[in-house]
Amino acid sequence: MGDATAARAALKQLARVGRTRLAATPTPLVAVPGLAAQLQTAATVHVKADAWTGFGLGGNKVRKLEYELAPKRLEGATDLVTPGGPHSNHCRVAAAAAARLGLECTLVVDGVPENAGRGNAALHRLFGARIVTVEGRSQREAAMEAEARRIATAGGRALVVPLGASTPRGALGYVHALVELHHQLNGAAAWVFVSSSSGGTMAGLVLGCALLGWRPQLVAVSADDPADRIKSVAADLAVKAAKLLCEDAGSGPESAWHADLVERTREAAEAVIATDAFVGPGYGRPTPASDDATLLFARRAGFVLDPFYTAKAAAAMVEWIRDGKLDGVPHVVFLHTGGHPALFR
């Protein structure tokens, strides 16, 4: 089976996996020549605008939740339970999805927001979520289990979605994003910068590369954890997502695409460049470089970044272009994963 034929067969298999459509996709790939000129690069600089997935004010979490909230997984569910921080983008979109689907929503949140009437904290409440507060991240799992038991005792059934919907199933949402990007760039060589934390977004991109046989250089910019951890977490999720996609693939010529998919996924994951050089003093705390990137993207491209994730990923891209690390690269893509409500916290 040729590469193109195998890719088509794999994407047919992906289309068979259940999902609940929420996102406005495909998201556009926007050239930003003003930013490129400011950075004095000959590369065509683009923004893949996943901040514009639309639902619940958009961002990358929407694509992942489409698969976590697949119709079969929702059968009999009365409640959605999921964790995050007090200003979590994932919690925002999850609460919005619960409202859309007629479910009650409980958010297990570590910490108290400075002002519950601002930013994502306000949106969690606007969408009608019940907020359960725990002191730290290590307590979230037990609290979610307790909430699921409480709901069951009351006669309901909770669908528990892990942090960021960063699961093998959720990662399938970013296979679609990679396919879109491949089409939008006509398969050209490119470097792709993306914020990375819980790993689901990068995992889907990796699996998409393995499915299509396309090898853009993926750069995972950590928002919090060490570089080796974000790379290994994404690789593990990508391999598990590949195995999930291979389930029930059948036999015969049309199924040959999955014969070595896991190995190709491991190879694509190994090729990812991960950096934690832009975390600065900690998660969500700005740096001079992230502040500079926020101003550059606003004033030279018309895009709004956030201080938790995208500003630091953008800072990496800006610095690497300025330092000449991307000289000769024809296309540089910033995958904008959203999060702008954090500016209003």
Describe this structure in words.
The protein has 345 residues and is α/β, with parallel strands linked by helices. Helices cover 45% and strands 15% of the residues. It contains 13 helices and 10 strands. It has helices at 3-16, 33-39, 61-68, 71-74, 89-101, 119-126, 140-153, 168-184, 200-212, 227-246, 261-270, 288-301, 310-322; strands at 29-31, 44-49, 79-84, 104-110, 130-134, 158-160, 191-196, 217-222, 273-275, 331-336. α5 links the parallel β3 and β4. It is globular. The mean pLDDT is 95.
Indicate the topology.
Layout: H1 3-16, E1 29-31, H2 33-39, E2 44-49, H3 61-68, H4 71-74, E3 79-84, H5 89-101, E4 104-110, H6 119-126, E5 130-134, H7 140-153, E6 158-160, H8 168-184, E7 191-196, H9 200-212, E8 217-222, H10 227-246, H11 261-270, E9 273-275, H12 288-301, H13 310-322, E10 331-336
Parallel strand pairs: 2-10, 3-4, 3-6, 4-5, 7-8, 7-10, 8-9
Antiparallel strand pairs: 1-2
Helix pairs in contact: 2-12, 3-8, 5-6, 8-9, 8-10, 9-10, 9-11, 10-11, 12-13
